[in-house]
Design a protein that fits this description.
8 helices, 180 residues, 4 strands, four-stranded parallel sheet, alpha/beta
Length: 180
Amino acid sequence: AYKPHPDGYANASELVKGLREISDFEISVSAYPEKHPESTDEAADIDMLKRKFDNGATRALTQFFFDNDVYERYMERVTAAGITIPVVPGIMPIQNLTQLKRFAGRCGTSVPSFLDTRFEGLDDNPTDRAKVAADVAAEQIEDLQRRGFSEFHLYTMNRAPLVNAVLENLGLSRERRSAA
């Protein structure tokens, strides 16, 4: 659990305020479509994001999620709270489903059962597992685009080949990106 330093900031919203007092620059903060593990409830998460916004945050990046309906409902609550900064969805290409489930459990992120089906039998087949991982992430992004979202944060976890495969699946080849 977070414990503030006696001479530090009590929370992220106070840090944002302190940074804003130093200078006018971009400040990205975290956001949680599914409840942060240390929050009392989802309303507390929205309240914290609102305080970070009110104190000068210019963008939020979400914790990764796999259910786009969860993100869309979250964005409805964000909008209703009067938060107008971009809240960029965090997309996590899956390197290893078993490890991801452990990590997601610590982060409070749900892992839908359809992912078990998609990755079934691929534990010992890294080539096919990477292809499925790139497909799943690209499909998630394409669905979010259909819902009207246009900015995305891909968690790379220092695994550029998988992220490149996701971009390829989206029609954003390295050559196309270089020409843009």
